[in-house]
Give the backbone structure.
Amino acid sequence: MYLARTFHRGNHKYSLRQSYFDEHRGTYSHRQIFDLGREPGRYIERLDERVICFAEPLEDAVAEASGKDPNILLEKLLWDFLPAEIRRIIGQFQKQTTPKLSPLTPTEKAEISRYVHIFDRRRLFYIRYGAVDQSRIYRVKDKLYRPLLFKSRDEKEYYIREMERALRPDELKKYIYVIFNLQQNFPQSYAAFMPEALAEEQTEDVFLEELCRLNDDSTFWQDEEEGQFLREHLQGYLISFFDSHFTRRSYDYDFYQSFRRAHRNFVWPQKKTAMTDEESSRIFGKKMTELKKMTLTELTRLFRKSAKEHHPDSGGKAEDFIKLLETFEILKANLRKK
């Protein structure tokens, strides 16, 4: 499941979509799960400074489509729309280490060979290594393309679009030059690593030819139906190419990027609460063994009910409400670790 953002008549609209394998077409397609409209934040309810919940219709739609607990999934999908304080709290409980990837299975290798297009390979190769010269692209381990497996073309495009946000504005034109493999149209030896030295008008003509060729490539678009003009996912490349300029590489910036990749993030250790299981059971009205067996959805619903009872505005004690929040955060963190 993924968050899709479209631009129509000067406004952004958001929706949750899901990829699936279309047996009739023999390829991956996508369907809409929930229309979030222009303001996804209106489906997020803030119960307290440190606690939020999602609208029940949204939770139900995501649970039915995914078959999983919707809360963790929605926290990830709607991360940018969560209050800053909530993002900070959730970030404290997220694992900081990157899990070791297992070797690709024969099925995954077959999927990469069939559904990962050369255009996808060029984009991920540049984003990962920043290489203008892509002569070594087929030496890259296929694990780089694992995030694209079992996804529709629409989901792949939104995934790569999110990664492209890390690119500097002054390297966009060079990036587009590389991913459309424009160098193949020039005999000059420096075309592979110095596109800024080529004739600008000729480069633009070649780009438009390659753009139209990809626009008509049915093997790339999978289930996407051809429109009357340029496909939506390619329009951003067209605009960026003509709105930006080639710039020379900066040694200082390359050194900085190398240092930043090697730098390890430091995270302060989490504070431990001194609350006992007896106190937690009293606050929630359930035994701790029962609380630990609950799903996140069940726990959230119980928290909502208990929060109304213990909130100071409802006649409850502020001390009990704080303990309720602390216990809820701890139980949520334990669920995420499972």
